[in-house]
Amino acid sequence: MATKTTNQKAWLFVIPVVLLVAFNAVIPLMTVVNYSVQETFGDNVFFWEGVKWFEQVLQSERFHAALGRQLVFTSIILLVEIPLGIAVALTMPRKGPWVSVCLVLMALPLLIPWNVVGSMWNIFALPETGLLGKGLNVLGFDYNFTRQPLAAWFTTILMDVWHWTSLVVLLAYAGLCSIPDAFYQAAKIDGAGRWAIFRFIQLPKMKRVLTIAILLRFMDSFMIYTEPFVLTGGGPGNTTTFLSIDLVKVALGQFDLGPAAAMSLIYFLIVLLVCWVFYTLMMKDEVE
Amino acid sequence: MARITLENLKHSYADKPENDDDWALKHLEFECADGGAYALLGPSGCGKTTLLNIISGLLRPTQGRVLFDGEDVTDFMPDRRNIAQVFQFPVVYDTMSVYDNLAFPLRNRGIAGEALDKRVRLIAEMIDLTDTLHQRAAGLTADGKQKISLGRGLVRDDVNVIMFDEPLTVIDPHLKWQLRSKLKELHQQVGTTMIYVTHDQIEALTFAEQVVVMHEGSVVQIGTPVELFEKPQHTFVGHFIGSPGMNVIGCELDKGKATLAGTPVATAPVKNEPQPGANLEIGVRPEFITFAKSGIPVNVVRVSDTGRFSIVETKHKDQSIKLLVPEGGIIPSEAAHIRFDAKHTQIYADSRIIT
Which of A5, A207, A248, A269 minimizes the number of CB atoms within 10 Å of its CB? Predict the structure, then answer.
């Protein structure tokens, strides 16, 4: 038997990656873990508290309320943006000079920074001066997003739909473009109607990109912070205080670092869990 | 089942075709008999897929008419023409089972219940898919998927024609043969008119009763495989069919007698006098040339042994002439004489046969 040469020096090549991952993921995360199980009064003096903060967060009504609002918000976003995105993608041309026009128009909202989007919509929706706010009031609707919770929700959702539906459109469009013509021709020959073509050709072929679209929109909308913060500041009252707005209030407003750390970890685990469950379910069929 | 007539057909993909090159199909006129097995054979870009799409109704011809059993269907969409098509790459509905795939065309036409079930099972039996009937179609191999495509055509018992657009492209070589025999068998079983598009001469010649050879947008010959082999109507057919292809050698013609740089050559009798100034050529297949004591003087240039016979490349002046010598035959080493089989030696004027 030939003896293998062993040379462990190759491990040195891994060091840059280890350092990179350590500094941008492991160390920050472990700092949060560190805070979540201890009490601190500054000066790097820590007292062990075990799972006290976790219990406190999980039992707090404030957290439940924020989580509830967050879940409702994300559900509405997904229910509106995914079907709307598919519908827009289906109407977009597949050939000709209009393709690039449509693509650029679609990509525009995605290029605008979050806080700019928030400011834009804030100005746009102001009941006294904004085009949308003033317009609605002229038309006879009593609309004031700084005072009415329903109006605040409506505006926030409209803003997110405006900002992010394009992403779903672009992904769905990419999926549609990858379907060879032969499929449509075969469907014509088989006598399939418009709905059957969508149900049995377009939707299955878009499945992978839609999975990505849903995951991205879930994660982004579940972690949304800047836009509602700029638009409504979480108000009126607490009605648009979503999880991350609440978290920032706890961490930086009240400087309760322990509970804030525990809340961060719970938040993180919820996102992770939902994504994992969703992805596993969507990909179950592919494996068989 | 139907007789298909193509009348005065022309097609161009350009909006305003100006010169000859703009036409993908240049004047086509032929008829497929009811229940026949046809092959459209030609190199890539000769217009065969265009023609197929015109017959199926996916394309509307720029000019001319398509008739099914005498009825003008030029303006009909594919579903109204009642045809079936198998594409180059297998088209299956991924999320459906094999059974649902086969049932799909029937369900779309309002057939349900026992009639549907019986028909689907019968077709599945014919194409050997009974065992996988309840599997997801996405999980099948390429040849299985291609069988589903075929099955979706066969399942409607009233289809006018089934068309195949190079259906064996993605099939493994050892399965190609199998699937091809299956197709032929199915054709005899169901008797539907079938049109098979391919650039592979072996596929065309083994599948079809009539082969339509296309070249640059025109049909150059329609005939049985034997006719294409023994009497190519156009030098292109001679080149394209056969391996190696027909020898085409420039010649002169005087009072119906051909001469090759002064050496007289016996050919089939000339039927049409060529136009004065036409480019004259002799066409003879390597199979019909033998070495002889006297005849056309040549030099042997190269010999390639293919097993059952050798391909011998010779030169007469600067013209290359290939011939086949069966295994064990004697091949002269340098200077020799060859003789053409007169019955199978044709003369072409401007590439068209005149003998």
Answer: A5
Residues A218-224: contacts with CB under 8 Å, at least 24 apart:
A218/A74, A218/A78, A218/A274, A218/A275, A218/A278, A219/A271, A219/A275, A220/A164, A221/A73, A221/A74, A221/A77, A221/A78, A221/A160, A221/A164, A222/A70, A222/A74, A222/A270, A222/A271, A222/A274, A223/A271, A224/A73, A224/A160
In sequence order, the β-bridge partners of residue B315 are B299, B320
Residues 273-332 of B with CB under 8 A from A: none
Nearest CB to B79: which of A182, A188, A285? A188
Domains of chain A: 25-59+256-288 (no CATH), 65-242 (1.10.3720.10)
Are B91 and A196 within 8 A, CB to CB? no
B341 CA to centre of own chain = 26
Q: Alpha helix (H) ranges present in chain B?
A: 48-56, 78-81, 98-108, 113-126, 142-154, 173-190, 201-207, 225-230, 235-240
Q: Do A185 and B87 touch (CB under 8 A)?
A: yes
Sheet bearing B263-265, strands edge to edge: B252-254, B257-260, B263-265
Please provide the CATH number assigned to the domain covering B245-353.
2.40.50.140
Q: Which B residues 325-344 touch A at CB under 8 Å?
A: none
pLDDT of A82 strictly over 90: yes
The letter for the amino acid at B185 is E
Same fold, B4-235 and B245-353: no
Question: What is the reported pTM?
Answer: 0.76
Write the residue in A192, A204, A288 that is nearest to B94 by C-beta.
A204
Cα–Cα distance, B125 to B153 (Å, whole number): 14
Q: Name the residue among A182, A190, A285 with its Cβ closest to that of B104.
A: A190
B96 chain-A contacts, CB cut-off 8 A: 200
**CB-closest option in A186, A191, A205 to B85:** A186
The domain B4-235 having CATH identifier 3.40.50.300: the answer here is: yes
Q: Provide long-range contacts, Cβ within 8 A and 24+ apart, for A176-185.
A: A176/A89, A176/A90, A176/A94, A176/A202, A176/A205, A176/A206, A177/A94, A178/A205, A179/A205, A180/B89, A182/B87, A182/B88, A182/B89, A182/B91, A183/B91, A185/B56, A185/B58, A185/B78, A185/B85, A185/B87
What is the rounded average pLDDT for all residues in chain A?
88
Residues in chain B within 8 Å Cβ distance of A285? 136
Domain boundaries defined on chain B: 4-235, 245-353
Please report the pLDDT score of residue B1 as a whole number.
61
Q: Alpha helices, DSSP H only, in A126-225?
A: 131-138, 149-177, 181-189, 194-197, 203-222
B95 at A interface, C-beta within 8 A: yes
ipTM of the complex: 0.74
Cβ distance of B83 and A192 shorter than 8 Å:
no
- pLDDT per residue over B182-206, tens digit each? 888 888 888 888 889 988 888 888 8
pLDDT tens per residue, range B41-80: 888 878 888 888 888 888 888 888 888 888 888 888 887 8
Q: Measured between CB atoms, does B104 come within 8 Å of chain A?
A: yes
User: Angle at the Cα of A197 (from B120 to A215), degrees rounded to 5?
Assistant: 115
